Amino acid sequence: MDQISATPGVAGQPGGPEFGRMIEALRTVQAAITGAAPPPEVSAEVGAILETVAGALEPYLVGEDEQLSGHRDDLPGRGQPLLPPLWLDERDETHLRGRVTFDRFHLGGNGAAHGGAITVLFDEMLGRLANAGRNRARTKYLQVEYHRITPLDTELRVEAKIARVEGRKRFLTCALYDGEHLTADAEGLFVELLPGQP
Ligand SMILES: CCCCCCCC(=O)SCCNC(=O)CCNC(=O)[C@H](O)C(C)(C)COP(=O)(O)OP(=O)(O)OC[C@H]1O[C@@H](n2cnc3c(N)ncnc32)[C@H](O)[C@@H]1OP(=O)(O)O
């Protein structure tokens, strides 16, 4: 997590565009599986293919510091499939602004994004900002309010700001918009780690 590379990877090297394509394909698969009601033979076939996929990657499993997922700032959501695809367009040490699209994989119900998926987005936004150019901090609390449903398959705007810093405490806010409509917002406290805190 400490080393996030913003440099696009080189074709033919680990972390190159082939890696980004694999993550993109995984996102497509997640949405397709969530949204499908396949007959049993198709479920069995797809399950076998996915087991083969996991087997193909097994020889290349590495420790957290060496993994590519989560460390690729040139990819949406850092190439971390847990995160919805998030593109950061503006960033400095006081604010972040980006675009995000939730898809079928992030469905809560009745066409609305799952509240937990929105919270993951907010924790990511606030965590990125809380740690921008500063010593490492972790989320102490994150208080989220859902004002209206957050639609799927729609490009949304997300903005985070530093509200205030008090010693080790960094208070931040984040807001998610569908056009001009605020769908959800959050306030969070991040606390700078002391030496020895993991
Ligand atoms: C670049 C990558 C982006 C990804 C970002 C992802 C971010 C994350 O998700 S991090 C993972 C989730 N978070 C965690 O796992 C954190 C787990 N918790 C911890 O490690 C610790 O509790 C930690 C480090 C946050 C704080 O621990 P600790 O040093 O004991 O702090 P503590 O003494 O309790 O509190 C520090 C200050 O905050 C204050 N505080 C604590 N809780 C609250 C609260 N609920 N409300 C207001 N103030 C509070 C305390 O009063 C204290 O204030 P002061 O310094 O003025 O006395």
From TrEMBL:
Pfam families: 4HBT
Subcellular localization, as worded in the UniProt entry: Cell projection, Ruffle membrane; Cytoplasm; Membrane
Keywords, alphabetical: Apoptosis, Cell membrane, Cell projection, Cytoplasm, Fatty acid metabolism, Hydrolase, Lipid metabolism, Membrane, Transit peptide
GO molecular function: hydrolase activity
Highest taxon above the source species: Bacteria
Catalytic activity, as annotated: octanoyl-CoA + H2O = octanoate + CoA + H(+); decanoyl-CoA + H2O = decanoate + CoA + H(+); (5Z,8Z,11Z,14Z)-eicosatetraenoyl-CoA + H2O = (5Z,8Z,11Z,14Z)-eicosatetraenoate + CoA + H(+); hexadecanoyl-CoA + H2O = hexadecanoate + CoA + H(+)
EC number, as in UniProt: 3.1.2.2
Protein family according to the UniProt entry: Belongs to the THEM4/THEM5 thioesterase family.
Protein name: Acyl-coenzyme A thioesterase THEM4
Principal cellular location given in the protein's record: membrane
PANTHER family named among the record's database cross-references: ACYL-COENZYME A THIOESTERASE THEM4 (PTHR12418)
Thioesterase domain: residues covered: 110-181
A GO biological process held by the record: fatty acid metabolic process
Keyword Transit peptide applies: yes
GO cellular component annotations of the record: cytoplasm; membrane
Species, as recorded: Amycolatopsis acidicola
UniProt topology in membrane: Peripheral membrane protein
